[in-house]
Design a protein that fits this description.
With 138 residues, the protein is an alpha+beta fold. The chain contains three helices and six strands; from the N terminus they run αααββββββ. The protein has helices at residues 4-7, 19-37, 50-54; strands at residues 64-69, 74-82, 86-90, 101-104, 107-114, 118-123.
Amino acid sequence: MFKLRDLVRPRAKRPEPHPADAEQAANLNRRISKLLNTNKTPSAIAERTIETRSEERFVPLWTATSFTLKNGKRYDARIMNMSRFGVALDADFSNIPVRDITFVGKHAVTHIRSLRPGAVFKFKIPLEDKHCDPSIIL
């Protein structure tokens, strides 16, 4: 016959926190508070015209792209959607000034507005109709 104490396991002791874990948690808390306390300045919103808003948006088959800053540094991004007139990118813009982005792929762009997961950019020269389909690679 078994007893009740045989079924109950002794409580496991909580492991001692490692100093590196505490340091990492402090770094994360510092980064989060910095993000919450940043004063976001509204970007200059380009005038929206009927043709840019009614332009068909699509997601290309190849969503991987890159963007380039004024200083020449390149970063990877993912295309959320695009049209002839602009592109919405998903990337980590937390340490990157989006107004310094000059190119998406090989196309010159201007920052329009920020989104929760990324940012929207307007092409300085709209893409040609014949190239605007899901097979496009920026």
